[in-house]
Amino acid sequence: MPRWLYSVIALVIGLGLGLLYGWVISPVQFVDTTPASMRADYRADYVLMIAEAFDADQNTDLAIHRLAVLGSDSPADIASQALQTGQTIGYSANDIALLQELTRALQAYQAPPTPIEGTQTDSAPTGGTP
Amino acid sequence: MKRFPWEVIPVLVVGIALGVLYAWLVAPVRYINTTPNTLRADFKDQYRMLIAASYASTHDLARAKIRLELLGDTDPVQVLSAQAQRMLAAGQPFEVVQQVAMLADDVQSGVAHIPPTATIQSIISVESPTSTPAASLSGTETPQATPAESPTLEIVTTILPLDTITPRPTHTPTPTAGAPFILLSNEKVCSPTLTDGLMQISAIDSRHHQMPGVEIVITWDGGEEHLFTGFKPDIANGYADYVMQPNVTYTVRIAESGTPVPNLTAPSCTDASGGLHLTFQQP
Asked: Cβ A89–B132 below 8 Å, yes or no?
């Protein structure tokens, strides 16, 4: 057997041992994860908990605050995604209704009524003197 | 006899290094679809608070227990109690702390304060969808390839605390909220293991559930002390204590409401330490 083949075999064995160590024996461990990295069904359940609490307190600000840990999407989008996941994996009608209620509230919260032109007074100082 | 090819050793080492480098940096094990038990400690606290808030709304204890199990705590009651104490100490709103403490209490007793009218529990959802979006979403942690003749992926058992058909109870405010506390019992305690002069105070509600966060005011001639229940969860969530001095007469009352209990002194016991155990109840 040519000598260079020994080196190739050794390299392959070394690579294999390295991968074994890195992937099996001591893989990178994500022990301190965030809710945003949770699997979709767990995220949906997280949102459902928020929806259940929202059902009692009707506090949209608190719901938005709680949803913030689930990522940078808008709260309404996060709730909407949870609703879709819930529908797909067979949530009960009651749970779906809760998620819909939350989603609607968040969408309404995101779209405040546009002020009618001319009715809003701007009190910002102009810098001029009377 | 052929000489051992020692020159392969450094190549082997380089190979190992490259392998580890690849496994750790280039293509590390990715946990994009994590489970709640891997959450960072503070996020776990948030998760528990959310479970408690949800439970306060639904009173569905079975669902709350399943959600707590997702966090992988060995003793959820202890963890919840400890968290309630930390929240209390951190000055978080009492209502929020009470939700967590109440959940701990109900999980421990196994009885919901206000049980749901009916609960049909079907917790384990076994999914075997084909290549729908949900399959890739909900089963990425435990996918199993189907036999070669099937081109689809089969997703194996996923524990989902989601499929509970629960008629939602109407939110019923606790009828006794804010009612003044009454002294339920005042017992003399004699025990050789007791700290001499120890005044033990318990605060419970009408259902005899422990009440953390209840402020107690102890006054004596020339002094006043404020205590809160719940700082010794290893004893009880509604427990607090104070060491009385000899020959001093104390008056104890619940801060928010309740009639003062006057003329309390450290009792004397023969061959044992003496103390008092006061139990206040909010009817």
From this structure: no
pLDDT of residue A66: 94
Q: What is the pTM of this model?
A: 0.54
Sequential DSSP letters for A42-76: HHHHHHHHHHHHHHHH--HHHHHHHHGGG-SS-HH
Q: Which spans in chain B are helix H? A: 8-21, 41-58, 61-70, 76-89, 94-109, 133-138
Looking at residue B23, its pLDDT comes to 82
With CB atoms and an 8 Å threshold, state whether A28 touches B28: yes
Number of domains in chain B: 3
Asked whether residue B15 is assigned to any structural domain, the reply reads no
Cα of first residue to Cα of last residue in chain B, in angstroms, is 94
For chain A, domain boundaries: 35-110
Instruction: Tell me, yes or no, whether B21 lies in a domain.
Output: no
**CB-based contact B167:B116 (threshold 8 Å):** yes
pLDDT in tens, B105-160: 889 888 876 644 433 333 333 333 333 333 333 333 333 333 333 333 333 333 34
Residues of A within 8 A of B162 (CB-CB) are 41, 44-45, 48, 86, 89-91, 95
In a domain? residue B27: no
Q: Show residues of chain B in contact with A57, CB under 8 Å.
A: 53, 57
Query: Is residue B183 packed enough to be buried (19+ CB in 10 Å), middle (13-18) or exposed (0-12)?
Result: middle
**Residues A21, B23: C-beta atoms closer than 8 Å:** yes
Q: Report how far Cα B143 is from the mean position of its chain's Cα atoms.
A: 32
Contact B56 A53 (CB under 8 A): yes
Residue numbers of the domain that contains B71: 36-109
Q: Are strands B198-204 and B153-155 parallel, antiparallel or unpaired?
A: unpaired
ipTM for the whole complex: 0.71
Question: CB neighbours (10 Å) of residue B153?
Answer: 18
Whether A34 has its CB under 8 Å from any CB of chain B: the answer is: yes
pLDDT per position as a tens digit, B32-56? 788 899 899 999 999 999 999 999 9
Of the residues B43, B162, B171, B172, the best mutation for testing chain A's interface (the one with the most A CB atoms within 10 Å of its CB) is B162
Q: Nearest chain A Cα to B37, which residue?
A: A31
Residues B222 and B247 in one domain: yes
Is residue B79 a part of any domain in this protein? Answer: yes
The amino acid occupying position B83 is Q
Provide the phi-psi class of B258: left if phi over 0, else alpha when psi is between -120 and 50, else beta.
Answer: left
Supply φ then ψ for residue A90, to 5 degrees: 85, 45
| Lookup: tokens for B270 | 């023969």
